[in-house]
Amino acid sequence: MRTFQTTKGRAVERVIPLSSLGYCKAVGKSEREECAAYAQAFDNSEKARWRTGLFVRYAYRLLECSERVFADERLFYAPLPLPLRMWAKKGAGYTPVEMSLTLGHILVWWQDYRCSQVESEEGELHYIFGFDIVRGKFGFPIKPYKLRYIGKEGQAYCTETDISIPDLGASLYEVCCQYGTSNSYFELEDAIEYLLGERVYQRL
Questions:
Q1: pLDDT of 90-121, one tens digit each?
Q2: Number of alpha carbons in the 13 Å side-chain half-sphere of residue 11
Q3: Please, how many CA atoms are within 13 Å of residue 111, restricted to the half-sphere of its CB?
Q4: Alpha-carbon torsion 147, 152, 153, 154, what sign?
Q5: CA–CA separation, 192 vs 103, rounded Å?
Q6: pLDDT value at 74 more than 60
Q7: Is the bond leading into 144 cis (omega within 30 degrees of zero)?
Q8: C-alpha to C-alpha distance for 144 and 127, rounded to whole angstroms
Q9: Model pTM?
């Protein structure tokens, strides 16, 4: 995010650290979304939607286990197929980046960046789990932007926001760049069973 200050008649650019961004603001009414309740073994996109719904349902309990997640790379690097897009700063603009998101990344983002939370119309803060820029007929972004968040009861909601989605994506990218990769990791359903003792699936 950029602001311009004037010093002795000259405009001076000042870059605000992404970690200093404030909470997102919901614009208008939030709408509840249904998550996939099951998945078939051969359908990867169906499994991704199912795991997204699984994460939404268990997110707050996983957040309570964050210290255990940070202490075990199998948990930290559990992949998450969340509807999030990362953006890298390139000169005066942003470029979308393909990068694998993990359970550890999202927990760090939630704990360290205020912009990872949205303030609902009731004034309550909720954690964001999804956003992207929707482009119109000629490739221009459609505003207002939409993001998804997790209600206190573990349900998914969608709301409009006027926050810069590339700024949000850049803050998440900043988190991901702090960590390497690992070939040793749990799938999300196995991480939930390991952390919480709950078997949440029959073999997909």
A1: 877 788 888 899 999 999 999 999 999 998 88
A2: 5
A3: 16
A4: positive
A5: 11
A6: yes
A7: yes
A8: 19
A9: 0.81
